[in-house]
Every structure is written in structure tokens, then in C-alpha cells.
């Protein structure tokens, strides 16, 4: 009997477990140990128990863990919970925990272990992996790394400073004492979570949002369904030569598709004067903006596959010149969240400060920006997770890096092949160790939404179980 360890009990870990037990290649009831801290088991980090003001950024009706449409919405109805356009993320966490629990209840081989893994030791002769927690160790034949995002970045070196919140989640525990002048570093979806909690739940009179670029996610426009005409699998495959696809061909194909769908190229590169103008533009142009966003979402799975065929030079050009625009349109915020932000910004409750240069601590937090110097009592870090495994300080990542079991990908995360097998700088492509999710950012371009993780996990498990069938 193959012994399997799944590290991480979030969407990816649950999905791996689900595919493993339902796969025809899995003999009997496989022995699967899934590791995570008790509060995150079956939920993952974004969907933990937290304030109800933290919303999904994908419509509830588009969220499912089981692949069947309306999986989450159907569950909400059975629980007599309100079905909103965007439900609180904790609702999705309750749903995913139940999916996981019923999976574990119906398969005796699944064991939830409420512990963090701190190290993994590979035996190259036996081809086995011994995983270590603080209290015990155990040997496995197959290991799946599904640990989600790495730790938070600390771009201004303020970690440990009093009244500096290094990681804001759960907001209802980490931000519940913040008082006085509160500044948030960042303008992404996490910063918006913090603003909503501080104003809607804590009733704060004013919150400052600081960022270097002032870029916020776009506002989700109207839903569109497309019949793709040019950006097809056949067209893309016809460009493969020597296992590479040239970026210029892909960009030309994307422009041709935008043209065929009557989407203005200038919309893709839109960059209004200020963050506030940006929000207002998207709210006022919901139909066109929605068309662009849903085209990007429709092409995402194919584009993610293409990404693994780009040369290193093309990947770098893409990340510098194209990615910021895709990223902006890829995870838009719900329109009602945007309307509320505009209202708060116009009434002065949210002060958005672009052109941030530095922040340091001198009794209070001094923020320097193009528009002046600001003095804050509390500073909340919402700059997002680390991407470079060499800078991550968690024991598991740093120990695996040190053993040269994992190596850095060119754009962040770790190196894996197209089948998601981990490529070790010391042992080469590992038989029996796989990774998926944020850790494989370098080869799974923008594949981190629930639906895509569920899809990609299935492909990974199909490949992984072939060697044991
Ligand atoms: C704030 C936020 C909001 C989001 N909202 C949406 C949304 O609305 N819709 C959507 O589709 N996507 C959303 N996403 C994207 C999100 O990344 C995916 O939906 C999904 O949660 C990723 O799942 P995962 O299992 O890869 O990672 P996670 O959900 O983070 O799960 C990884 C788990 O691994 C555990 N872990 C880490 N290290 C160890 C260790 N050493 N030992 C044991 N366990 C460990 C962690 O505790 C964690 O529970 C959001 C992301 C964020 C950050």
C-alpha cells in the first residue's frame, strides 16, 4: 500500500485528497495523511473563520470545490445561509471544511494530522520521504506540497515593532486593538479587506492607504461568455518549435482575439490619473471592462499552459511588460466594494496616498511620499506574500532549500516540471514529490483561483498515480 502525505489542508490539499481517493488508479483505500494546523485544516488561509466583511472576489455561483457547477451555492441553500453575489470568505471555508470532513468520514485511509511539517528528508536509494513535525516523523512514498502562499514580505524591515501588524489575518484578532491614526501599506485585495474591517466593523473615522504605484485591482464588470475564435489550443500548438513558443506570436494572437471580440486594446493598457479615478472609470464602464476581464479569465487555463513553453527571456519580458495589466484585470473586486471605497475616499474616510517612498519608526510611523510626510500610530502590512523561497523564513521551506531538495524558480516559487514533479538541485527530478499552488508560481502562471487549482490538481494526480497503477 502506497503511503501518501499531503502538506497543507487548503483548497489544493483537499482537492489532491479528493482526486486521490476517487481515482481509478488508486488501489483500495489509500493511506493519506493530510497535515495542517487545526484552525486551517479543510479551509486554507484565505477562508479561515474571520470577519464577515471579508468577501470572495469571485462570484459565489462561480465557486466550487467539487467541479460540479453551483457546488458552493447549493451548499449555502442546504445550510439556509444567504446566497449573495459575493459571500463572506468564511462561508466558503465552512463549505470546504464540510467537503473535506465528509471525504474523511467516507474513506478510512484519510487521516487529518493537526501539525505543521518542519522538514522533509529524502532517501534517494529507497525513494522515500520522511516528514518531520515538532513531535514525530513518518516515512512516505508520495508527498504533495500544497502549502499555499509563503510568509508575508516585510519590505520596510518593521517586523517586531510595536503597533506594526506584520500579517493582518485574521483581521478580527490582529486589527482589533488598532486605534488612532491607522496606515495600511498596499492597495491590493488584502488592503481592501483591512479597510472594510476597520470601517464597517470597528467604525474608524479615517484610514490611510499608502502605496508606491497606487495600483488597485480593477472592478469586476458585467459577465460575458465568449466563443473563442483565434486564441485556441490548435493555434497555440502550431507555434511550438523546439519545445518553445515565441511570446510575440502569443501577444499577436491575443490582440487578434481582442479585435474579433470588439475589445479596444487601449482598455487593456488603461491607466487613469489616480487610484480613485481608476475605480470610477471601471464602475462607469462596467460592460467594456467586464468583457476584457472575462476574456482574460476565459483564456487563463490555456495561457497558463503556454507559459511553460516560454523562454526565460520571454518570461522576463512578459512579467515586466504584460503581467501587470493581466494581473490588474485578473482578480477584480466586486462592484459594491468599489462603490463603497469611492464613497469613503470622497468623504475623506479613506485617504489614498500614491507615491509612497519609505516608512520608518520614531515613536510613531513616519511615512514619506511624493505628496508629503504622514505620521501614523499603527501600520498594517498588506504588501502580500514573499515569492522568493530563499527569503522565506518558515522552517519547512528553509530546511528543504538548505538540503537542496527544492530550488528557486526563475520568477519565484520552486522549480517543477510540467507534471508538477519537484526538480531538486541535488537529486534532479524527484520521483514521488509533487507541488502545486502558489509555490509553483514559476510554471503555473495565474493558476491560483479555486477553480483552476481543482482542475490542475486532477491532471497532477492522473500523472502521479500512473507510476503506481
Ligand atoms: C486574501 C485572499 C483571498 C482570496 N480570494 C479568492 C476567491 O475569492 N476566490 C478564489 O478562487 N481564490 C481566491 N484566492 C486565491 C487562493 O489562493 C485560492 O483560492 C486557494 O485558497 C489556494 O489554496 P491552497 O490550498 O493552494 O493554499 P491555502 O489555502 O493557503 O492552503 C495552504 C495550507 O497549507 C498550510 N501549510 C503551510 N505550511 C505548512 C506546513 N509546513 N505544514 C502543514 N501545513 C502547512 C497552511 O496552513 C494552509 O492552510 C484568495 C487568496 C487570498 C490570499
From TrEMBL:
SUPFAM superfamilies tied to this protein: FAD/NAD(P)-binding domain
Gene3D superfamilies registered for this protein in UniProt: FAD/NAD(P)-binding domain
Pfam families per record: NAD_binding_9
Domain of life: Bacteria
FAD-dependent urate hydroxylase HpyO/Asp monooxygenase CreE-like FAD/NAD(P)-binding domain mapped to chain residues: 5-149
This protein's name: Uncharacterized NAD(P)/FAD-binding protein YdhS
Organism expressing this protein natively: Lacicoccus alkaliphilus DSM 16010
Amino acid at each position: 500500500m502506497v503511503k501518501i502525505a499531503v502538506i497543507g489542508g487548503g483548497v489544493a490539499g483537499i482537492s489532491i485528497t479528493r482526486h486521490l481517493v476517487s481515482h481509478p488508479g488508486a488501489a483500495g483505500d489509500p493511506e493519506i495523511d493530510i497535515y495542517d494546523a487545526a484552525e486551517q485544516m479543510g479551509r486554507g488561509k484565505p477562508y479561515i473563520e474571520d470577519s464577515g466583511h471579508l468577501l470572495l472576489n469571485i462570484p459565489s455561483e462561480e465557486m466550487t470545490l467539487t467541479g460540479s457547477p453551483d457546488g458552493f451555492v447549493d451548499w449555502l441553500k442546504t445550510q439556509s445561509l444567504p446566497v449573495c453575489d459575493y459571500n463572506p470568505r468564511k462561508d466558503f471555508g465552512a463549505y470546504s471544511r464540510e467537503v473535506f470532513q465528509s471525504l474523511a468520514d467516507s474513506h478510512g485511509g484519510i487521516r487529518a494530522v493537526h501539525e505543521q511539517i518542519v522538514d522533509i528528508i529524502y532517501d534517494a536509494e529507497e525513494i522515500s520521504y520522511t516528514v518531520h513535525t515538532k513531535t514525530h516523523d513518518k516515512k512516505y512514498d508520495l508527498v504533495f506540497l500544497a502549502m499555499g502562499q509563503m510568509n508575508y514580505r516585510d519590505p520596510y524591515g518593521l517586523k517586531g515593532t510595536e503597533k506594526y501588524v506584520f500579517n493582518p489575518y485574521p483581521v478580527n484578532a490582529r486589527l482589533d486593538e488598532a486605534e488612532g491614526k491607522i496606515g495600511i501599506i498596499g492597495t491590493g485585495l488584502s488592503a481592501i479587506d483591512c479597510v472594510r474591517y476597520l470601517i464597517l466593523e470597528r467604525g474608524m473615522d479615517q484610514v490611510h492607504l499608502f502605496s508606491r504605484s497606487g495600483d488597485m485591482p480593477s472592478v469586476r464588470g458585467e459577465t460575458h461568455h465568449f466563443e473563442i475564435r483565434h486564441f485556441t489550443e490548435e493555434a497555440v500548438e502550431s507555434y511550438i518549435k523546439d519545445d518553445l513558443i515565441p511570446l510575440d506570436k502569443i501577444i499577436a494572437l491575443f490582440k487578434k482575439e481582442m479585435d474579433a471580440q470588439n475589445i479596444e486594446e487601449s482598455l487593456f493598457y488603461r491607466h487613469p490619473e489616480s487610484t480613485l479615478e481608476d475605480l470610477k472609470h471601471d464602475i462607469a464602464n462596467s460592460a467594456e471592462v467586464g468583457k476584457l476581464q472575462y476574456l482574460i479569465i476565459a483564456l487563463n487555463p490555456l495561457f497558463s499552459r503556454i507559459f511553460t513553453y516560454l523562454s526565460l527571456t520571454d518570461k522576463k519580458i512578459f512579467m515586466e511588460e504584460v503581467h501587470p495589466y493581466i494581473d490588474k484585470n485578473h482578480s477584480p473586486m466586486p462592484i459594491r466594494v468599489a462603490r463603497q471605497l469611492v464613497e469613503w475616499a470622497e468623504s475623506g474616510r479613506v485617504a489614498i496616498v500614491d507615491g509612497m517612498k519609505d516608512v520608518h519608526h520614531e515613536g510613531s510611523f513616519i511615512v514619506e511620499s511624493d505628496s508629503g510626510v504622514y505620521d501614523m500610530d499603527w501600520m498594517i502590512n498588506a504588501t502580500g506574500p514573499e515569492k522568493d523561497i530563499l527569503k522565506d523564513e518558515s522552517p519547512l521551506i528553509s530546511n528543504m532549500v538548505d538540503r537542496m531538495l527544492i530550488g528557486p524558480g526563475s520568477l519565484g516559487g520552486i522549480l517543477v516540471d510540467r507534471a508538477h514533479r519537484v526538480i531538486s538541485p541535488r537529486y534532479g527530478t524527484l520521483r514521488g514529490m509533487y507541488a502545486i499552488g502558489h509555490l509553483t508560481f514559476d510554471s503555473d502562471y495565474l493558476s491560483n483561483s479555486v477553480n483552476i487549482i481543482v482542475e490542475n490538481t486532477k491532471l497532477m494526480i492522473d500523472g502521479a498515480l500512473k507510476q503506481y497503477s
